């Protein structure tokens, strides 16, 4: 419930189930339990379900946005956070039903309403995706 207070995303686009290891203003780990009934698996791909890489990056952004709101407090709850850049995105292995995606985000810098993060997504301690990205909080 705290994630839904922090960010405005809702099903089917809320890609976080839980937050852990929150170090305010610095880093956090978001958890996404990937299940076979995810709406994107109907078309990506029915015979071999694979979580789209862009949604893994989106899960990184949602983890970072939740960290930002938890850091800045109630005045920022529910505000929109827009991507500004995504750089050096790499996808190492497919993510599918039954995987637990652990999304590690670490703040690289923050200036006013613009924050820059490094994200690494893992399944069973194996890196499946990584990227650097920046986002802006919008009123």
UniProtKB/TrEMBL annotation:
Catalytic activity reported: a (3R)-hydroxyacyl-[ACP] = a (2E)-enoyl-[ACP] + H2O
Matching Pfam families: FabA
InterPro entries: FabA_FabZ, FabZ, HotDog_dom_sf
Keywords: Cytoplasm, Lipid A biosynthesis, Lipid biosynthesis, Lipid metabolism, Lyase
KW Lyase (keyword) present: yes
Entry EC no(s): 4.2.1.59
Molecular function per GO: (3R)-hydroxyacyl-[acyl-carrier-protein] dehydratase activity
Active-site residues, Swiss-Prot/TrEMBL: 44
Coiled coil location: none
Organism domain of life: Bacteria
Flavoprotein among keywords: no
Gene3D superfamilies for this protein: Hotdog Thioesterase (3.10.129.10)
UniProt family annotation: Belongs to the thioester dehydratase family. FabZ subfamily.
Cited function: Involved in unsaturated fatty acids biosynthesis. Catalyzes the dehydration of short chain beta-hydroxyacyl-ACPs and long chain saturated and unsaturated beta-hydroxyacyl-ACPs.
HAMAP family: FabZ (MF_00406)
Protein name as it appears in the record: 3-hydroxyacyl-[acyl-carrier-protein] dehydratase FabZ
Provenance organism: Bombella pollinis
Gene: fabZ
